[in-house]
Each structure stands twice: as C-alpha cells, then as structure tokens.
Fold this sequence. Notes:
The complex is a heterodimer. Chain A is an alpha/beta fold. Chain A has four helices and six strands; from the N terminus they run H-E-H-E-E-E-H-E-H-E. Chain A has helices spanning 43-59, 76-81, 106-117, 137-149; strands at 64-70, 88-93, 96-99, 102-104, 126-131, 154-161. A five-stranded mixed β-sheet of chain A has the order 4-3-2-5-6. The longest helix of chain B is centred in the first third of the chain and has 22 residues, at 18-39. In chain B, helix 2 packs parallel to helix 3 (111-123). At the A-B interface, helix 1, strand 1, helix 4 and strand 6 of A face helix 1, strand 1, strand 2, helix 3 and strand 7 of B. Strand 1 (64-70) of chain A pairs antiparallel with strand 7 of chain B.
Amino acid sequence: MTGKGRRPRYIDEPPATDVEVPWRPPRIKLAPVSRPGADINVTPLVDVVLVLLIIFMVVTPTEEEALTVQLPKEQTTDQQESISLEQVLVTVAGDRLAINNKPVERGAYFASLRNMLVGREPDERIVFIAGTDATPYAALVEVIDAARQAGATSVGLVAENTPLSAEKEGVDLGGSAL
Amino acid sequence: MQLSPNKAGGLKADINVTPLVDVVLVLLIIFMVVTPLLKKGREVALPQAQSGAAQKELGQGDLLLTVASDGKIWLEQEVVDEERLTALAKERKRERRYLEVMVRADADVTLGQLRPVMKALKRADVTNMSFAVLKKGAP
C-alpha cells in the first residue's frame, strides 16, 4: 500500500467528502438584550436590611418615656397652711411620705391615694407633690409614678423646698443619711 | 507593539460600583439612626417608671435638659445655672407660646439638685415639664 496522502482512518472519523463547504464567518454569540428589570441583584438589599435590623435591635431596648408634671403657680405655699378637701398634697422627705401632712407608710401610700381619688371627676384628680431638698430623685419619680397609677390625671410639682409639717418645728430632716 | 489603553483588556476596565453604593448606603442609614440619639444629650442613668407616656418629639427651640449625677445641669452641650436657664427659657418662651421641656435627670440626684430647674422654669412661666424615664421592665 503506497497510498500517497492516504492515512489510516480513525474509527469515528466521518468519511472524507469532496463536497466543498462554503466559508461562513464565525458565529459571534451575543449576550441576550437586557430588558429592564430582568433580574435585580437582591444581595445589597438584603445586606442593608440586615444592618437596619441589627441597628434597631440595639437601639430599641433603651426605650424612653416621659412623666409630665405641672409646675403650679404661687398658691402652693398657702396650700400647705389651708388644704381644702379637694386638694391632695403628697410630701416626700427622704423615704418618708405624708398625704395632706398625715404620715403614711410607703406600702399604704398607693391604696390611700387611690381611695382619695376614686369617685372624683377626671379633671379633679389632681395630686400635688412636694419634697425636701434631700429627697432622692428616684423616690420622687416613684411617688409620681404611683400617683399616676392611682388615677391622678394631673400631677403638680411644688418647686419650693417643702418639709413635712412635723419637721417644721426643728426636727432634723435626716439628710445626712443620703 | 504599542500600549493603547483603549484596546480590549486595557486600563479602562469598568469599576464595579455596587459595593461602593452598598457601603455608602449603610453609612447613610447608620448616621440617620445615630444622629437623633446624639441629640439626646449626655448619658445618664434614668429612673424607671411604669406610667410613662410616649415622649413628644422635641422641636427647634424646645428645651432638653440633662441633670448629671454630679448635679450639673446641661442644656444640650452647655452647663447652665439657674439664672442662665431662666433667661434662656424666658427668651424661648417669647418666641413661641408653648415650650416643651424635657428633663433627663440621673436617678442619683436629689430633689435639691433639681430645684434650680424647677425654679427657673417657673420664673419663666413654663407650666409643664416632663421627666424622662425608662419603661419599667426594660433592661
């Protein structure tokens, strides 16, 4: 077998043809024309939303609220001397409490205040709160809080230093304990 | 062989802006959230209460006072005394009919340290003030 130019055929090689295949330009595959809104990449969105979630998770536990009090005008100094039936004056001196100058136990304060306020018109449920300089602010907030829960619609805070009436007679206020 | 930047694979490749936009957006949101918190003034340990109502939004000219545990009274970033506070409250009261006053006092102060605030507000004819409290039960 001289067979010029002939080489052994491989098994899966198609038989050689003499038909000439016309030349075609190579096909260039174009990317599909992008239509608007075809696919949105949600990864950045999820990213931002997650960060927001974390920020609010951190911020929310320190939720603050407000206790609003009135600052009544000058009549408060006379009130102590002549307390009419309608007025409720709570005096806080350190950890001692008095309603209309009658001392009350801390545990009985809420109940007796509610007894005084129950049956009143909502706009008559006014409680004035006065205190000594040595009273801790936390105790004052506690008293305001309890008064509001006892039904007080308006809480007036007396701006002046107001000792308990018994202590006007020179009894020491016990401010050193604070 | 010439180095022409406009040929394929040259120096003018596209910059992927997506991560940049991403980071900038997150920064924007962080500052949006943090800025109102910064305006709330100095850090104090507020007392707790159950009967608090939602805080009203403080507008321009409203007073946000902070009484620190050492008894110093801060108006935003400035320490004020009773006279200065009276003058300021009077001035702001002149500009607007109703003045919202929020007092953020540390639970450790005494009523005596709060007295200047109350007296100053009273002298300026402010009839209402609010104490900031933490909702009881929150950590």
